[in-house]
Design goal:
about 10% strand; 9 helices; 12 strands; alpha/beta; disordered N terminus; about 425 residues; two-stranded antiparallel ribbon
Length: about 425
Amino acid sequence: MKLARTLFVMCAMSSTVLAGDNGCVADFNGDGELDFFDVSEFLIGFNSQEPVSDLSGDGQYNFFDVSIFLTSFASDCASVDTDEDGIPDFAETNDGIFLNENATGTDPLNPDTDGDGINDGDEIFGTDDGLDLPAMGANPLRHDIFVEIDWYTGTVEGEFRDFRPTENGIQRIIDAYANAPVENPYGGEPGIDIHIDYGQGGPFTGGQQLPGDPPVFMTFDGDFNVVKTFFFDSNRKGYFHYAIHANRHSSAENGSSGIAEIDGDDFMVTLNGFSSDYNMSQTFVHEIGHNLGLRHGGFENTNWKPNYNSVMNYRFQFPGIDVDGDSFGDGVLDYSIGFNSDIDENDVNEINGLGGTAVDFNGNGILDVFNYPANLNCFDVLANPCGVSDGCDDGVCEVLKDNDDWSNINWNRLNESSDRNPEPVEIIHCDNAPTTK
């Protein structure tokens, strides 16, 4: 009876909806007026269980549908949007269950419920500039990353080279992020959804082969920005990362696998004659990791640390991360979770090794029972005396630290990128080169 009385009172009311407001849930007949006829049509559909009255979209006809209708009607469709994310409060059900635009599961007090740097309204409705993020898989309840890849194919340096990503290579990347130990709101399954547009069709038609044979090298961000201006849609700026897969960057002699912005949205994968699914995916995750705020030492630039178990580390970029604790890569594509303990290069302990697994750090064929000083973050040798930098990233003996990469992704990076912020973005040159396909 209480519901009937409420509806009866509302039937006696009549109000005008803002002109052109076709998104009004309660304006059932679409005439721009809220009156008896809208209530009548809702009730007829509700009683006969017609889908038009299933406002919550859960396939049931119950209090939730009536509540949505009443809230919209009572507010004259001028729905309150406390967090100003473009979704009215009545639709943000704050339960972590997305059903439709009228029951989004999102937090009405947080414009970015999942904390991925993309507004909830943009993830549900698309952007004001017509970027259809929901068609590409955006989810306001799960971390999303969007990337467009453009690439070159053709003859360069005397041979045919095709830098187009393959489905298998892309799948390795998708799987690595899907398996990430990154928490999502409301106890949702952990992980990150990375959406990569390399021209595969459907809503993913932005990625494309760039015209002409691959240039021997491209400058970053000079040549890169020229290409971006012509081939990257402006409505993707501030939402998508942009990658170019090309031959080389910076110079004709450069064998570097890539270059990227730190805390930005642009990067290159440059594998010259060593392009393969494996090398591409390992390098892609390394370079976009710089966009996400990670450095070659995680939180620092110190490279080749045996206890920083991440593809951001040159030691593990191409070999993959170490899964058995021997300080050598095992082909797994992943960032570090910060598991390994510190190593004091002034007091190296081989028995404690990495995570409790003994390691022959100096490669002398035995496990030394006595501690010793040694420079361990090296690339041409396993260890050098303190003060010797030959074959090492530095000549200093210091405390080497792991980093929890996944927990330290900069989800605000898009706001810091040059596409949204005119301030210069730091560029990091990655001089690590692949040696095999």
